[in-house]
Design brief:
- The protein is of the alpha/beta class.
- It is about 20% helix and about 20% strand.
- It has a single domain, classed as Purple Acid Phosphatase, chain A, domain 2, CATH 3.60.21.
- It contains 5 helices and 13 strands.
- A 6-stranded mixed β-sheet has the order 5-6-9-10-12-11, with no helix packed on it. A 5-stranded mixed β-sheet has the order 4-3-2-1-13. The protein has a two-stranded parallel ribbon with strand order 7-8.
- The termini are close together.
Length: about 230
């Protein structure tokens, strides 16, 4: 048995948390507000120091400085940040003691884990793809032997309901999960309102959003045994 501990959307409040023991600690993105280099460094220091044997994480839409498709000019204009973001991305991907997944798969404890930060277009934030054929290209990269899938946003109908009752998950992601990949677990966040676990009887869907709508830590890490 492998115990996974799932968190997401901590938004620079990670030091207010003490994740429970487990074999694999997973963070499904949005660990900063806007990817400020100092906030990135603080998160990496905290995450790498956690006692779990394996630490796996992806970026979310708030980690704008890590999006390789987002120009530094736009980032500076909208978010007021300047710097060598290419160097920052290299630091994140090479930090010892943690595994940063950007459209790639690793194997841990006999489990194949794939992580991808993309989401249906959401304002002018990071890692946006248009719904339909554009975002489908990202999901087509998910290997069919994936046991644990980590994305920042949800699939349609699974942990994706806003407080307005509107569902905003990705239909294309749901199709890939149910028709082709069929992972044992899908870990995500993004929609703070829909924290919790759902299932389609093949895949267990874990919305691990730690912050509530007020961006305060409201939800406990979700522990799941495989």
């Amino acid at each position: 048995m492998t115990r996974i501990v799932c968190i997401s959307d901590t938004h620079e409040r990670h030091r207010e948390m003490t994740p429970p023991d487990g074999d694999i600690l997973i963070h499904a993105g949005d660990w900063t507000y806007v990817g400020d280099p100092s906030a990135v460094a603080d998160f990496l220091d905290w995450f790498a120091s956690q006692p779990h044997k394996h630490k796996v994480f992806i970026a979310g839409n708030h980690e704008v400085t890590l999006d390789p498709d987002m120009s530094e000019t736009y980032t500076a204009r909208r978010f007021g940040m300047v710097g060598d973001f290419q160097k920052l991305r290299e630091i994140v991907s090479s930090t010892e003691g943690v595994h940063y997944l950007l459209d790639r798969q690793i194997e841990i404890e006999g489990l194949k884990i794939y992580g991808s930060p993309w989401q249906p277009a959401f304002g002018g934030w990071g890692f946006n793809r248009k719904r339909g054929s554009d975002i489908s290209k990202a999901w087509a990269l998910i290997p069919t032997d994936t046991d644990i899938l980590i994305t920042h946003g949800p699939a349609y109908g699974q942990g994706d309901m806003l407080d307005t009752t509107e569902r905003v998950g990705c239909v294309n992601l749901l199709q890939e999960i149910q028709d082709r990949v069929r992972p044992r677990v899908h870990v995500f966040g993004h929609i703070h309102h829909s924290y919790g676990i759902t299932s389609d009887y093949v895949t267990t869907y874990i919305n691990a959003s730690s912050c509530g709508e007020d961006y305060q830590i409201r939800n406990a890490p979700i522990v799941y045994d495989l």
